[in-house]
């Protein structure tokens, strides 16, 4: 059965480029992003991991752990990481683990195998993964899933934007509108009614419709 938002992220044990892990122990009490790659030494994957390495501090500042996955073994990952680091030699090095999933055990558990491109297989005919993303909260709950085709690189600033939205929504009773970014107005959650509106947001509520009420970004207001 496909994993859905609100499901507990399945646990697993695996070898990674930084040693063996138990996934739930790895998550601990942090937010975590698990993202898969079809194969080592492929052009789009190399640019993606380089981009994540360059922005890793932005994820760390939000208390987010990153862990990649690719359908190759640890030795292959080690050589590939050198290429990734050399893509931007003056920038930060890749400093998070990449799961070795040559058997596709984790990919199968998380439903990440490519069923679209029948040519996207290894020498044994086993499908590679698509570019899947899972955002998992500190309670091990899946909060976002995204799947890109193997041919399309991901937008990691969008994942930072989602993290900002989820963390803000968990702390305050708000949701975020289309194209929202940190610092923009947010939406008062529909469950907040009556006196609670003033208690939580004071007089800083702009009512467009009874069901659509804007208020300043609480994190900016408290800064």
UniProtKB/TrEMBL annotation:
Record-annotated active site = 45 (cysteine sulfenic acid (-soh) intermediate)
Statement: the UniProt record of this protein carries the keyword Nucleotidyltransferase: no
* Any one annotated GO CC term: cytosol
Q: What GO MF annotations does this protein's record show?
A: peroxiredoxin activity
Q: Which UniProt keywords apply?
A: Antioxidant, Oxidoreductase, Peroxidase, Redox-active center
Please give the family membership noted in the entry. Belongs to the peroxiredoxin family. Prx6 subfamily.
* Protein name in the entry: Thioredoxin peroxidase
What is the organism of origin for this protein? Papiliotrema laurentii
Cite the source lineage: Eukaryota, Fungi, Dikarya, Basidiomycota, Agaricomycotina
């Amino acid at each position: 059965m496909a994993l859905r938002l609100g499901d507990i992220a399945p646990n697993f044990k695996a070898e990674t480029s930084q040693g063996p892990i138990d996934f739930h122990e790895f998550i601990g009490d942090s937010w975590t992003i698990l993202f898969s790659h079809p194969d080592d030494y492929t052009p789009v994957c190399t640019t993606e991991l380089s981009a994540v390495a360059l922005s890793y501090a932005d994820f760390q500042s939000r208390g987010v752990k990153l862990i990649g996955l690719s359908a190759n073994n640890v030795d292959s990952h080690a050589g590939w990481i050198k290429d990734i680091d050399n893509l931007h030699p003056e920038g930060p090095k890749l400093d998070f683990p990449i799961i070795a999933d040559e058997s596709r055990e984790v990919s199968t558990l998380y439903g990440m195998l490519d069923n679209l491109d029948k040519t996207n297989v290894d020498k044994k005919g086993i499908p590679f993964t698509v570019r899947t993303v899972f955002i998992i909260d500190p309670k091990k709950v899946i909060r976002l899933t995204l799947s890109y085709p193997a041919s399309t690189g991901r937008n990691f600033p969008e994942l930072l934007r989602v993290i900002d939205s989820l963390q803000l929504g968990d702390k305050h009773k708000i949701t975020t509108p289309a194209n929202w970014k940190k610092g923009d107005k947010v939406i008062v959650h529909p469950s907040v009614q009556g006196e609670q509106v003033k208690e939580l947001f004071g007089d800083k509520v702009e009512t467009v419709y009874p069901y659509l009420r804007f208020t300043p970004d609480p994190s900016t207001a408290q800064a």
